[in-house]
Design a protein that fits this description.
The chain contains 18 helices and six strands. The protein has 427 residues and is mainly α. Strand 2 and strand 3 form a beta hairpin. The protein folds into three domains: 57 residues, Rubrerythrin, domain 2; 189 residues, Orthogonal Bundle (Citrate Synthase, domain 1); 106 residues, Cytochrome P450-Terp, domain 2 (Cytochrome p450-Terp, domain 2). The strands form two sheets. A three-stranded antiparallel sheet has the order 1-2-3. The protein has a three-stranded antiparallel sheet with strand order 4-5-6. Bound molecules: carboxymethyl coenzyme *A. The site of carboxymethyl coenzyme *A has 21 residues, from helix 17.
C-alpha cells in the first residue's frame, strides 16, 4: 500500500505520497503541493530536497557509507581501477574482460587533442587557474566533436572515453604549457593512470620512471572522487543539462561549480592552510580559534560535509594511502605531521564534536597529490578528472528519463511591492 504523509493547513488536510528508496530512504513527494494548496516549500541550500531518483550512488551520511552501483567504495579502492569504476558508474555493471579491453582501447584512441584546440592554450594569460582553462576547453569540445550520440552503450562509452581521455590530456597540457614545456601524448601501451604520469613527467632531457605505487595511489584517488551523488557540481551538471544543452556544456558548468573552495577547491585550500600554519611556526591553536569565531569567515578547510555527520569514508581510505605512500617512499612531508596534529586537536574539541565536523576527502588528498609530484594549482583539476564518470552517469540518467524536466526552482519574493517608474527629475 502506498504510504502517505498527512499535511494539515488550517482546516484543510491533504495527503502526499511517500517515496521509498531501495535502502529505505524516504521522501515526501510534494509535486502536487502547490496545485493543492498554493504553497511551495522553502529549502535554501537544498539541504533537505531530493532533486531526482537515482540508481548510481548510495550515501549514508550518518553511518559513513558510500557505494557505487551498490558496491562499497572500500572494495573498489582495494580491487578495482579507475577505468573499471568509470565503466561501472556509467553502464551500471562491472565490465567483462572484453568490455574493459575495448573501453581501455577507446581511452587511448580518444586521447589526442585537435591541433586547433591546442592553439587556444597560448591565448590564456600565464597565471590563469587551470580550472578556468579546463572549464573553457571542455565547453569548446562541442565545436570540435559535434556527433554527440548517447542512444546506445557503444555511443555513450565513446563519449565517456572522449571526455575522460581528453580531459586528462588537456589537464596535463595546461600545466606543461604554463611552464613553457613540450607536451607528450599518451602511449598506447600504458594504462590510463600511468599515462597521466608519463605526460606530467615527460621531459626531452630527463627520463623519469613511473612508480607502480604512484599508479595504484592515483587509481584510488580517482576512484574515491568518481561520484558522490547530488553534490554541488553534479547538481550543476543536471541543472544546466536539463535546459538540453550539449553534454560538454553541462560538464563545463560542473567543472566551474567544482572549482569553489567549499567544494572541490578545498583540496588546494587545505594545502595552502597547512603551509600557512607551518609558516606561523606550526602553531595550530590560533587557526582553530579563528575557525570557531563566528565573526570570522575562516573555516578549517578539509573539515565538515553537508551529508557526512561522521568520518567521510573516502577520507579514511585516502589517509591510509597517504601513510602507505610516504612510508614506502621513505619520505616525510612536514604538512602531514601538521595535518595529523590538527585532526587530533579537532577530534577532542567540543565545537567540532558538537557540529559533527570530521576530516573530509580533501583533508589528506592534497598530501597524496604532493607526494605524486602534482603541482598544487592542479589539485582541483585532479578532482575534476576523477569526477568525470560521475558527471556523465548522472547526466545520462536524466537524459534517459522520458519525463526529463527542466530544473526550475521557485522563490518567495520579499522585494518592493508594485510602484511606478519615476522620471529622472522626480527621484
Ligand atoms: N570549520 C569551522 N566551522 C564549520 C566548518 C569548518 N570547516 N564547517 C562547518 N562549520 C560550522 C558552521 O560555521 C556552522 O556553524 P553554526 O551552526 O554554529 O553557525 C555549522 O558548522 C554548519 O555549517 P554549514 O555551512 O551550514 O554546513 P554545510 O553543510 O552547508 O557545510 C561545508 C558543508 C563542506 C560547506 C562546510 O563544512 C565547509 O565549509 N567545510 C570547509 C570546506 C571543505 O572542506 N569543503 C570540502 C567538502 S568535501 C569535498 C566535496 O565533496 O565537495
Amino acid at each position: 500500500m502506498q504510504e502517505t504523509a498527512t499535511l494539515t493547513l488550517g482546516d484543510k488536510v491533504i495527503q502526499l505520497p511517500v517515496i521509498i528508496g531501495s535502502e529505505g530512504e524516504r521522501a515526501v513527494d510534494i509535486r502536487s503541493l502547490r496545485k493543492k494548496t498554493g504553497l511551495i516549500t522553502m529549502d535554501p541550500g537544498l539541504a533537505n530536497t531530493g532533486i531526482c531518483k537515482s540508481q548510481i550512488t548510495f550515501m549514508d551520511g550518518e553511518k559513513g557509507i558510500l557505494r557505487y552501483r551498490g558496491i562499497p567504495v572500500e572494495e573498489l579502492a582495494e580491487n578495482s581501477t579507475f577505468v573499471e569504476t568509470a565503466y561501472l558508474l556509467v553502464n551500471g555493471e562491472l565490465p567483462s574482460e572484453e568490455q574493459l579491453k575495448e573501453f581501455s582501447l577507446l581511452l587511448t584512441e580518444q586521447s589526442l587533442i585537435h591541433e586547433d584546440l591546442k592553439a587556444f592554450y597560448g591565448k590564456f594569460p600565464s597565471r590563469s587557474h587551470p580550472m578556468g582553462i579546463l572549464s573553457s576547453m571542455v565547453n569548446a569540445l562541442r565545436s570540435f566533436y559535434k556527433d554527440l550520440k548517447i542512444d546506445n552503450e557503444e555511443a555513450i562509452n565513446i563519449t565517456l572515453a572522449r571526455l575522460m581521455s581528453k580531459v586528462r590530456t588537456m589537464a596535463v597540457m595546461s600545466y606543461k604549457i604554463s611552464r613553457g614545456h613540450t607536451v607528450a601524448y599518451p602511449k598506447p601501451e600504458y594504462c590510463y593512470c600511468s599515462n597521466f604520469f608519463y605526460m606530467l613527467y615527460h621531459s626531452p632531457v630527463r627520463k623519469r620512471e613511473i612508480n607502480p605505487l604512484f599508479v595504484k595511489a592515483l587509481n584510488v584517488f580517482w576512484i574515491l572522487h568518481a561520484d558522490h551523488e547530488q553534490n554541488c557540481s553534479t547538481s550543476a551538471v543536471r541543472l544546466v543539462g536539463s535546459g538540453r544543452v550539449n553534454l560538454y556544456a553541462a560538464i563545463s558548468a560542473g567543472i566551474a561549480a567544482l572549482w569553489g573552495p567549499l567544494h572541490g577547491g578545498a583540496n588546494q585550500a587545505v594545502i595552502e592552510m597547512l603551509i600557512k600554519i607551518r609558516e606561523k611556526g606550526g602553531k595550530i591553536k590560533p587557526f582553530i580559534e579563528k575557525a570557531k569565531n563566528k565573526k570570522d569567515p575562516f573555516r578549517l578547510m578539509g573539515f565538515g560535509h553537508r551529508v557526512y555527520k561522521t568520518y567521510d569514508p573516502r577520507a579514511k581510505i585516502i589517509k591510509k594511502v597517504c601513510h602507505e605512500l610516504l612510508a614506502s617512499l621513505k619520505t616525510n612531508d612536514p604538512l602531514l605531521d601538521i595535518a595529523l596534529e590538527l585532526e587530533e586537536i579537532v577530534s577532542k574539541d567540543p565545537y567540532f564534536m558538537d557540529h559533527h565536523l570530521y576530516p573530509n576527502v580533501d583533508f589528506y588528498s592534497g598530501i597524496v597529490l604532493r607526494a605524486l609530484g602534482v603541482p598544487t594549482n592542479m589539485f582541483t583539476v585532479m578532482f575534476a578528472i576523477g569526477r568525470m564518470p560521475g558527471w556523465v552517469a548522472q547526466w545520462k540518467e536524466d537524459a534517459d528519463d522520458p519525463k526529463w524536466k527542466l530544473y526550475r526552482p521557485r522563490q518567495i519574493y520579499i522585494g518592493k511591492n508594485k510602484r511606478s517608474y519615476l522620471p529622472m527629475d522626480k527621484r
